[in-house]
């Protein structure tokens, strides 16, 4: 199973989060956007590329490697598994690694190997991952500081930290956002992208991100609330724009839990209710949407949007997308 990424749309977006996941979240799709469960549970590399780059408006995806070997013998989506997509479409994917603070020196060696082989610029951190009797770690742990020091040395500057809803049987406490604050203060040269914006701890996340200029928010898992809870999602966006600002918010689809096509379409059409605009003094403008959908992530990864769009404009996926959306 291939998985875990953010989507960048350089005209509008970059997708920052691809994941596989459970049935409960799958039902939050609009009914006409759902596919058969067996298709969701197992899909091919070609299907993934089509869903993202042909049908889904995405220009670049960020593959976030997540191991979870206590539950998946071969790993949930390791860097080796994700590299299948990177090799097949090198200009379409950013490949990120991972580390776990409990892995000691062998984990540091693996981090160096990933940097040497793939020149990774980011990692996915899953602080609630189980290893043996340990049910998680904190970014404030001394061992985590050792890894962050190594990231700074290696130029791995983007730390995508899973801080969102609990996935059974993992522990809610291990997803808490409070450990981000001290780490971000201690390592100003690193950027901490808090995936799933800390939900259901949005207020805690906002207060930390307001104080720490290097703490950003990733919208995966929050985005699908546009369908069942549009008012709730509008309130999320109003809070993020007020506290965090439009330059520190990143779109993510969490493919294959959700496909980017309908998320992007709904987000591009979204207008904040007038009462929220008045209360928070913010607006979700087209310029802000472009930043969220891709320009912010492009900045983090040193991508020149115009240059990269020109680079991919004639590849097979772009040609297929142009044909699909051609106006007759």
Question: What features would you describe in this structure?
Answer:
This protein has 328 residues and is α/β, with parallel strands linked by helices. The chain is built from 14 helices and 11 strands. Helix content is 42%, strand content 13%. It has a 9-stranded mixed β-sheet with strand order 2-1-4-5-6-7-8-9-10, with helices on both faces. A two-stranded parallel ribbon has the order 3-11. Strand 1 and strand 2 (14-16) form a beta hairpin. The longest helix has 15 residues, at 104-118. Residues 19-24 have low confidence and may be disordered.
Oligomer: single chain
Number of helices: 14
Shape, please? Answer: globular
- Kindly provide the name of the CATH class: Alpha Beta
Please, what is the CATH homologous superfamily?
Metal-dependent hydrolases
Cross-sheet strand order for the largest sheet: 2-1-4-5-6-7-8-9-10
Largest β sheet strand count, sense and barrel closure: 9 strands, mixed
Overall domain count = 1
* Share of helix, binned: 40-55%
Going by CATH, the architecture would be Alpha-Beta Barrel
Distance linking N and C termini? 36 Å
Structural class of the helix and strand makeup?
alpha/beta
Q: Rg to the nearest angstrom?
A: 19 Å
Number of strands: 11
Arithmetic mean of pLDDT: 90
The low-confidence parts are: 19-24
The succession of helices and strands, N to C, reads EEEHHHEHEHEHEHEHEHEEHHHHH
Beta-strand content estimate: 5-15%
């Amino acid at each position: 199973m291939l998985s875990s990424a953010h989507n960048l749309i350089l005209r509008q977006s970059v997708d920052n989060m691809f994941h596989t996941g459970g049935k409960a979240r799958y039902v939050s799709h609009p009914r006409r956007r759902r596919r058969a469960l067996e298709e969701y549970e197992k899909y091919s590399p070609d299907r993934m590329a089509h869903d993202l780059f042909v049908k889904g408006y995405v220009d670049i995806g960020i593959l976030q490697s997540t191991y979870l070997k206590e539950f998946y013998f071969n790993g949930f989506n390791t860097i080796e598994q994700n590299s299948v997509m990177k090799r097949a479409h090198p200009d379409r994917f950013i490949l990120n690694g991972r580390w776990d603070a409990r892995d000691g020196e062998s984990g540091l060696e693996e981090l160096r190997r990933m940097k040497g082989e793939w020149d990774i610029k980011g990692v996915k951190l899953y602080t609630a991952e189980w290893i043996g009797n340990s049910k998680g770690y904190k970014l404030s742990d001394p061992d985590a500081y050792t890894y962050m020091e190594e990231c700074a040395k290696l130029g791995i500057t983007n730390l995508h930290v899973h801080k969102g809803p609990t996935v059974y049987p993992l522990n809610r406490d291990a997803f808490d956002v409070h450990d981000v604050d001290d780490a971000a203060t201690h390592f100003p040269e690193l950027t901490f992208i808090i995936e799933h914006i800390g939900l259901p701890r949005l207020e805690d996340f906002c207060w930390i991100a307001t104080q720490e200029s290097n703490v950003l928010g990733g919208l995966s898992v929050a985005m699908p609330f546009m369908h069942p809870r549009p008012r709730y999602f509008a309130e999320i966006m109003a809070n993020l724009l007020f506290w965090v600002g439009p330059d520190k918010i990143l779109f993510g689809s969490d493919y294959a839990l959700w496909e980017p096509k309908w998320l992007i379409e709904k987000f591009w059409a979204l207008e904040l209710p007038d009462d929220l605009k008045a209360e928070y003094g913010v607006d979700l403008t087209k310029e802000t949407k472009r930043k969220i959908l891709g320009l912010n992530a492009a900045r983090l990864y040193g991508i020149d949007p115009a240059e990269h769009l020109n680079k991919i404009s004639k590849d097979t996926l772009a040609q297929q997308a142009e044909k699909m959306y051609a106006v007759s």
